[in-house]
């Protein structure tokens, strides 16, 4: 009798396990299908069902879940799953997660964290093109050194004061930067779109970088004015 009861219980458990595996596989397949078709809301729902049900979720599925949250602009949820994927032993997936964490940091205005994450992705997968591009772009933009175009700098007039010379050079830098930015904005936008960014997110990053450069130029002018006042007050 006891043997019969145990047999029934094992049979029920096996069938329950089979149903659970089948359910997980359906969620996995439907999640991937929705993600590939751009239906990120449904993809997130299916992948969440998989995460909540399965004892183990393959990193690629969790990465797609994070990507889905990213596209839905639910950055806190995206970060949670990107951080988990960044810890796996598969370099390509870990580096992809680190890049996305860096992009979120840029969108949140944290350039220091972004640079650290892009560098970490390069350490995970050396010479990884998206990580290298992002690192160089953000480093150049947030280093306080606007792009210079020496051919368009105005030459200082004879007997110009140091202050006038600095201001003339600054105007030349601004002019050169505007021309070069006008030529490269579309290229930057194209490259940003290729990094799993929507047009709105790519434009947000570009606007953030431009605002940072404007702030830097303003700070340089304020510093120059202070130096000029100190010069006149020196005996």
Descriptive report:
Keywords: TPR repeat. Among the domains are: 18-74, no CATH class; 144-235, no CATH class. 78% of the residues lie in helices and 0% in strands. It has helices at residues 2-36, 40-53, 59-71, 75-85, 91-107, 111-124, 129-142, 162-193, 199-232. Helix 5 packs parallel to helix 7. It is globular, with a radius of gyration of 27 Å.
- Average predicted local confidence, pLDDT: 74
From the alpha-carbon coordinates, what is the Rg to the nearest angstrom?
27 Å
Strand content: under 5%
Give the topology string: H per helix, E per strand: HHHHHHHHH
What portion of residues is helical?
A: over 70%
What is the first-to-last residue Cα distance? 109 Å
Uncertain ranges: 8-16, 144-160, 227-235
Number of strands: 0
Q: Regarding quaternary structure, how should these chains be classified?
A: single chain
The general outline is globular
Provide the structure class: mainly alpha
Most strands sheet: none
Q: What is the overall number of helices?
A: 9
Compact description:
This is Tetratricopeptide repeat-containing protein. The chain is mainly alpha-helical and 235 residues long. It is 78% helix and 0% strand.
Features:
78% helix; TPR repeat; mainly alpha; globular; 235 residues; TPR-like_helical_dom_sf
List the topology elements:
Elements (H helix, E strand, L loop, with lengths): L1 H35 L3 H14 L5 H13 L3 H11 L5 H17 L3 H14 L4 H14 L19 H32 L5 H34 L3
């Amino acid at each position: 009798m006891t043997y019969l009861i145990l047999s029934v219980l094992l049979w029920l458990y096996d069938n329950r396990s089979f149903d659970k595996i089948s359910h997980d596989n359906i969620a996995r397949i439907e999640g991937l299908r929705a993600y590939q078709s751009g239906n990120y809301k449904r993809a997130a729902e299916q992948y969440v069902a998989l995460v909540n049900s399965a004892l183990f979720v393959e990193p690629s599925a969790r990465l797609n879940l994070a990507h889905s949250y990213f596209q839905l602009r639910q950055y806190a949820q995206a970060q949670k799953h990107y951080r988990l994927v960044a810890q796996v032993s598969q370099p390509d997936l870990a580096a992809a997660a680190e890049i996305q964490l860096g992009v979120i940091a840029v969108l949140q205005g944290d350039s220091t964290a972004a640079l650290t994450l892009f560098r970490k992705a390069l350490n995970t997968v050396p010479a990884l093109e998206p990580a290298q591009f992002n690192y160089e772009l953000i480093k150049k933009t947030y280093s306080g050194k606007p792009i210079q175009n020496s051919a368009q700098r105005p030459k200082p007039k004879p007997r110009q004061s140091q202050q006038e010379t600095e201001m003339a050079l600054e105007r030349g830098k601004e002019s050169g930067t505007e021309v070069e930015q006008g030529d490269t904005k579309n290229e930057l936008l194209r490259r940003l779109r290729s990094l799993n960014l929507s047009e709105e997110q790519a434009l947000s990053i570009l606007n953030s970088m431009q605002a940072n450069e404007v702030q830097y130029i303003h700070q340089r002018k304020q510093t120059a004015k202070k130096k000029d006042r100190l010069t006149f007050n020196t005996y």
